[in-house]
Design brief:
alpha+beta; Creatine Amidinohydrolase; 5 helices; about 30% helix
């Protein structure tokens, strides 16, 4: 992927991405009250699919390279790509990342959040708060003349200073009409390295931060990635656009965008 040329989006295309991103944010807002003990991850999936269809959009993950569901639901030690199912019932104290990508007029709105189910443990609470801060520090590192490595350096420095580790196996990515494209955006790295930021670049920043080791393994279903030591993992994701003078988050609720 990273040998591909980076496509710069026009203002019209970025406006389309903003619409798709706003819908993605609204979908996560809609699902938030459902995240409670006793709810299955399949119920979350089915609610998301209904909501998406009602708005004339479609769910990009459904059928993508054979992925069987409409959203990813990654609970506790699951790093990413958890498959919703009826037998997985949320328990008090769990954490769950919900990753959604509705497609609107051919453009992908890709975002995720990690939610608490009931009352989190102190370590779960700290991990989730640190992970969200990692995302915001990664976004803040996007400046004209900077480079992709600045994002990973900012995230890695903060995560490791808090006693956590950064997943290496999965990275952010370019996104537009294509779900995953150049550039790759590692969440670890060295400042001043990598591709230079240019206005019109659109990509995700989606740090996966682990309680223990950064190492992961993929289960036999071919999708579900879990921490090698089975300790907790959290993730937050936004899609962003590089602008002439900085950065714009495209996956904000439309009311926030227009505020």
């Amino acid at each position: 992927m990273d040998n591909e040329p980076v496509v710069l989006l026009s203002k019209r295309e970025i406006d389309k991405m903003r619409q798709a991103g706003g819908l993605a944010a609204e979908l996560l807002d809609y699902l938030a009250p459902m995240v409670k003990p006793g709810v299955s991850t399949l119920e979350l999936n089915d609610a998301a699919e209904r909501w998406t269809q009602e708005r004339g959009a479609k769910s990009a993950p459904l059928g993508y390279h054979g992925f069987p569901k409409s959203i990813c639901t990654s609970v506790n030690e699951v790093v990413c790509h958890g498959i919703p199912n009826a037998k997985q019932i949320l328990q008090d104290g769990d954490i769950i990342n919900i990753d959604v990508t509705p497609v609107v007029d051919g453009y992908h709105g890709d975002t995720s959040r990690t939610y608490f189910v009931g009352e989190p443990s102190p370590v779960a609470k700290k991990l989730v708060e640190v992970t969200e801060e990692c995302l915001m520090r990664g976004i803040a590192a996007v400046k004209p003349g900077g480079r992709v490595g600045d994002i990973g350096a900012a995230i890695q420095d903060y995560a490791e200073s808090q006693g956590f580790s950064v997943v290496r196996d999965f990275v952010g990515h370019g996104v537009s009409r294509i779900f995953h494209t150049a550039p790759q955006i590692p969440h670890y790295g060295i400042q001043g390295r990598g591709k230079k930021f240019r206005a019109g670049m659109v990509f995700t920043i989606e740090p996966m931060i682990n309680e223990g080791t950064w190492e992961v393994e993929v289960l036999d279903d071919g999708w579900t990635a879990v921490t090698k030591d089975r300790k907790l993992s959290a993730q937050f994701e936004h899609t962003i656009a590089v602008t002439e003078d900085g950065v714009e988050i495209l996956t904000l609720h439309s009311e926030l965008v227009n505020a």
